[in-house]
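note to self: dont lose this again. the chain is below, predicted strucutre after it. 151 aa total, dont forget to put it in the shared folder this time
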Amino acid sequence: MIIFAIIFGIFISSLVEYLLHRIYLHQPGHDHLSKHHKEYLGKSFTREVSFNDVASSFGYIVSNILIYSVIIALIFLFNPTFAAFSLVSAIVYTLWVEFIHFEYHSVKKKWFKNTRMFKFLKKHHYTHHQVFNKNYNIGSRIWDVLFKTLK
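---
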């Protein structure tokens, strides 16, 4: 049951990540398109950056957590243990997305950047910068596959 709760937390958090990115951050006129996407288009995708250059705002991260917390709170009424593990894994996934997004754009050498998974997800995100209406997930690809936004 604990493993399923952890998977559920990642599943729900990655769905919220996908939906907020696709629906909120990509609405016409949003700063995300004019700043982040244009700034990191093409050759400048990977460069010397600070965390604040690519991190989401604190408010955006909190709203992400609040959205899936409502769903998990309902589960808490029936199974507190399942809900607790789901919430922790969802929050860890949200923080993972912030961390990994920074690392996609950073030139600093780190051991995990040579892993197959990192290269795979970085390429997925790079494609999103080239084709703005594809590849919305940052820390996974599951919702891009399911909603047919995978390029």
